[in-house]
Amino acid sequence: MNQEAKPVNNLHGKVCIVTGSTSGIGLVTAKNLAQMGATIVLVARDEARGKSALAEVIECSGNDNAELLMCDFSSQPSIVAFTEAFKRKHTQLDILVNNAGMMSNERLETDSGIELTFAVNHLGYFITTNLLLDMLKESPASRIIVVASDLHQQGKIDPNDIMHKHDYHGFTAYCDSKLANLLFTYKMAAILQGSGTTINALHPGVIKTKFGINDRNSDMRFPMGRVSPEVGAKAQIYLSASPEVQGISGKYFNEMCMERSSAMSYDEALADVLWQKSMEYSSMSIK
User: Fold this and answer.
1) Do the domain assignments include residue 121?
2) Where are the beta strands (DSSP E) in 189-280?
3) Does the residue 164 lie in any domain?
4) How far apart, in whole angstroms, are the C-alpha atoms of residue 99 and residue 195?
5) Are strands 252-254 and 257-259 parallel, antiparallel or unpaired?
6) SS3 string of 33-87?
7) In this structure, is residue 10 part of a structural domain?
């Protein structure tokens, strides 16, 4: 895979949200976008880690136009509170990087009764994007980035058991959530056609990171890969800032190369079912 540096935009005057930005590729992305001059909003679940990441971004970039907002993406009220807090502080949003994610080796449910992996990895993106969509559409050439995975190819979403109530396996639930990311991306791209706002998904590569099993609830973690976060973040930095992808929407990038995703990810009927169910599951959050 070609990892050569790509041209990027000057992001002065742009406002960017990066979720899951306390470590790994999220933190690297926040640092790089800050170095390009953007106003960066880091989003974190843990306040201490969030404050540490914020200080690191400011020190690394020399850009003090950075701030921290708190959000637990397993909690719909928390997502609503985070987006409302952002809207109170800002009048524009140019780049939204949906990066937060997790995996659980046991079936857990949120307070809303939603299976945890589906809630964080898919509904978190779905609700956040929809709640901020009006702001994004008001900004010229705004961009939505969805961090998916090539593991979506192993996903096989069952419309009758989206939340894995029967025969739960953590890896299967994770793969299905990444397939959901692609279905959401392509459906949203169709909705946004002609608006000036683009949305693209990516596989960042297999990253050396502490992301892993039960990351939300325990210290049980495992390294998931080969490349450093600095290398893994290149794709989402590229999609966030490069003039090369201006106007491109509804595409999947493996690292920084556009390619086709799995056949199931283009199933429009399945995308419609997922969208409908996602709206039902988030009806208290999205009016």
Assistant:
1) yes
2) 198-203, 252-254, 257-259
3) yes
4) 23
5) antiparallel
6) HHHCCCEEEEEECCHHHHHHHHHHHHHHHCCCCEEEEECCCCCHHHHHHHHHHHH
7) no
Helix, strand, coil percentages (3-state) for the chain, rounded to 5, are: 45, 15, 40
Q: Smallest Cα–Cα separation from 103: which of 17, 27, 164, 55?
A: 164
> Would residue 189 count as lying in a domain?
yes
Residue range of the domain that includes 242 = 15-281
Residue type, 151: L
Q: What is the DSSP letter of 259?
A: E
Contact 136, 197 (CB under 8 A): yes
In tens digits, what is the pLDDT along the chain, a chain of 287 residues? Answer: 344 445 567 999 999 999 999 999 999 999 999 999 999 999 999 999 999 999 999 999 999 999 999 999 999 999 999 999 999 999 999 999 999 999 999 999 999 999 999 999 999 999 999 999 999 999 999 999 999 999 999 999 999 999 999 889 999 999 999 999 999 999 999 999 999 999 999 998 765 555 444 444 333 333 445 678 888 899 999 999 999 999 999 999 997 899 999 999 999 999 999 999 999 999 877 76
Active site residues: 174
Q: Tell me, what CATH number does 255's domain have?
A: 3.40.50.720
Report yes or no: 23 and 210 within 8 Å, Cβ to Cβ.
yes
Separation CA 14–CA 8 (nearest Å): 13
CB neighbours of 166 closer than 8 A, spacing ≥ 6?
none
Any bridge partners for residue 32, and if so which? Answer: none
Domains in the chain, number: 1
